[in-house]
Structure formats: structure tokens, C-alpha cells
Amino acid sequence: MSIKYAILGILSCGPMTGYDLKKIIQDSPFMHWSGNNNQIYKSLVELLNEGLLTNEVHHQESTPSKKVYTITREGLDELKEWVKSSNEAPEFKKTFLVQLAWSEQLSNDELNTLLTQYEYELKMQILSQQEMRRRGIFSPKRSKREELIWDMIYENIISSYENELKWVKNLRGIMGNEDKEASSMDYTVTVKDGNKYIECASAQTPIQSEQNALDLISACLENQTDMVLIHGDVLSDDFFKLKTGLAGSVLQKFSNYFVRAAVVMTDDQRIKGKFKDFLAESNKGNSFRVFSSKEQAEGWLLNP
């Protein structure tokens, strides 16, 4: 399938710039092209030459001019004919299967690590796609039927990841190492006013790596929530040292997977200097904040 049909489809929703098209294609879970500038603008030129698009330069006072592309009647007809054409069978090209095929040279522990990493990646993808589905990122809703179709596209993608996760768990069970992925994060699930969040008040080892953050994100996925409340005692000393980069990487993980995190810090002497400034800046956002009491943290999570 050519990227040109994806571009025609997107522009059928309304005029857009090349940058708009690039962003939509890059963020899409099923438009599989890289969406780089060369690929998109080359296709736009071809579509213009074929009379399937028109463009217009919009001049702006304080910012550079932008070129806006609009689909023509001929473009809509071409798109419709392609949509009506016969389908291609789905492809199953998975890098992980190639890795797994030659995993005989790995020890049991090394293979277990490979499977664990793949499981985490699948869980994170499920969480990410669920959030994109909830937020409706470029999901045209020109009719109830179109809204339903796009929702079911996300259902297809999420179920594919879920089936892959089920397959990995089955593989681990057959190989007898299904219990080797226990999380070091101890947490409880709290339901209040119809909302649910994960609360982490203790841990076998404090949060000292991105993997620990992924443990909490995975817990959110498994319990169908995007909110986590963390007590300060769960954070390692390295978290409070900016030079380690741990705080930044953990916060980035929460942001990447659309998990909102509230931290409860009560008179913690570790908050000082540049780290105090770092927290003050973080508190301006809507994905991570620090509070002096559980009540305040819970209030922000449940009523953003």
C-alpha cells in the first residue's frame, strides 16, 4: 500500500499542512510509514501533479508562511476506488520472533530476561494505545459509523497486543519460568468516588531505575487505571540527585505512557537545592506533582 492513500484519507477530513500530516502518521498505531519529510513531501508533489490535491500558501505575520493541502474531487474519487479494492492479507513480521528463533544459545536466565523485557514492552503498548483511544487522537467523527469504525480499529490494535501478551505468558508457562517476573513494587488498589488509583507505600527496594517505574505503570495497566500515588519512602536517594538523571527518566516514563503520578513528601530533608527547583517546575505540569499530604495528592489525582 502506498503512503499516498493514507495522505488522501487524512486530507479527506480537511485541509492540512505537510507538518500536520507528518505528525498524524508518526503518532498513528496503524499507519506504518516512518512519516519522514522526504517521504511525505515527495508523495504530496506526486499527488499535486496527478490533480488529486491542490495547495495554497497562507502568509502569517509573526511566523513563517505555511502551505496547506486540500483534496480535490478527483482525489476523493481515487480514494474511494482504492478503499473498494481487494484487501491484502495481514503481514506478521516481528523482530522478536527472529530473536526468539535463535535463542537456543541463551542460558535460561538470559532467555527469561528476554521474555520479561518483551512482556513489559507489550504491556506498555497496551497502556499507550488504550490512552490514545480514550483521548481520541486523530479519530475522525464525521458520523456515528465513522466514530465506531475508528474505535474498532483501536480495539483491533489493542487486542493484537493482548493476544501477543497471552502467547508470551503461555510460552513461559510451557517452559516453566512463568513466575520469574515478580515486581519489587508493593502496591494497593484504591477505589474512591468511582475512580481507581494505584498506591505504592512500600517496596522491597526503593525506586532506583526506570524498570521500577515500569513496574508501577504495568500495575496501572493490569488494574485499568492511569493514576498512581507514591509515598516518599519508596523513592531512593538517587532519585533526589539530579546528576543521576533518575528523576527525569522516571517522570518521562510516566508522561510517555499517560500515567499521572502524585508523590507524598512529608518533611523530607532530601528536597533541597536544585532538586527543589526541579520539583517546583514539575508541579506546573499535569502529569506529575508533589504534595505534603495524602489527602492533597488524592484530591489532585481524582479532580485534576
TrEMBL record:
Domain of life: Bacteria
Annotated DUF4180 domain residues: 193-301
Protein name, entry field: Transcriptional regulator PadR-like family protein
Record organism: Oxobacter pfennigii
Cross-referenced Pfam families: DUF4180, PadR, Vir_act_alpha_C
Domain spans labelled Transcription regulator PadR C-terminal: 93-170
InterPro entries registered for this protein in UniProt: DUF4180 (IPR025438), Tscrpt_reg_PadR_C (IPR018309), Tscrpt_reg_PadR_N (IPR005149), WH-like_DNA-bd_sf (IPR036388), WH_DNA-bd_sf (IPR036390)
Domain Transcription regulator PadR N-terminal: 7-81
